[in-house]
User: Fold this.
Amino acid sequence: MSQPPHSAALQSPPSEGGDLRGLPPADPDVLLDIRDLRTYFYTLDGIVKAVDGVDLVVRRGEVVGLVGESGCGKSVTSLTIMRLIAHPGRIESGEIWFDNVNLLDLPIKQMTDIRGNRVSMIFQQPTSCLNPVYNTAYQLSEVYRIHDKVSQKVGRKKALDLLKQVGIPDPERRLKSFPHELSGGMAQRVMIGMAIACVPELLIADEPTTALDVTVQAQILDLMRDLQARLGTAIILITHDLGVVAEMASRVAVMYAGQIVEETDIHTLFRSPKHPYTVGLIGSVPVLGQIKDELYTIPGNVPSCIDLPEGCRFAPRCRARLDRDLTVCLEKNRELREIAPGHKVRCWLY
Assistant:
């Protein structure tokens, strides 16, 4: 399958309505400004539009939740921010402004200096992300050797301090441990330690509590909350667990089929969700103490990112569309529109 010319890969669409495309954010409090981001994967079966027009703003010191079911594009969005998209994927277009610098314009060397230093990421499944042939001391001290140019001895001392900071018991012994000798909770703490080693301005946490038992989940969330308060780090928390989002985030963006369909503050999201998909997500979560004959379910299946509907991507499953007999939903996709201060929705009902 032929691919578009590389020279056009990172060009943004023309400016509409006097927006700031091509210009850094005017608000100095904005740390990250993602505009019309598109990341596609070119496969033998077709073009997978994993991220297809995402806009997201993160302010300094803010915790933003990015929620949605598996396959909606959350992780690909995070990897795109870090510029870790591998073949056959490619960043088609858009802008990622981080502290007034468009990351998509940077050469690899400068991006490497930012990655792991000013912007860090906690990956899913920490035991598989850690290198199995190196012990904890080597992997933690490597962050300092790369970014701070310290000696191996100084790096080891800093690694010990990190293990203490993230609450690992008997840190001296754990420095010598290899990944297979760590429990899931300990491996996650090591990953968090690596991510915060250089005190990043932005931390991307991709499903940080997945596959951990409930007790360890609570400990990891408490650790992240403490680090955010102490270091002032902004966090993008990627998860499908609405309970984690309610506990950690101040603002939430809901993704569906490669696009953000609703964005608002955490209280408005749970009190007054607008997009039918968000309503379905919240309604399908069991509530302790409530007795229901059956849980709310969303009919149908998530569309394939290779063969997306022409109109609204949620339209084939939308009960609100059927109740109102709307046809525009099947014909044209809606842009993300602000319906109230700080509340954006991608839906023809508003």
Remarks:
- The longest strand covers residues 30-43.
- Residues 1-18 have pLDDT under 50 and may be disordered.
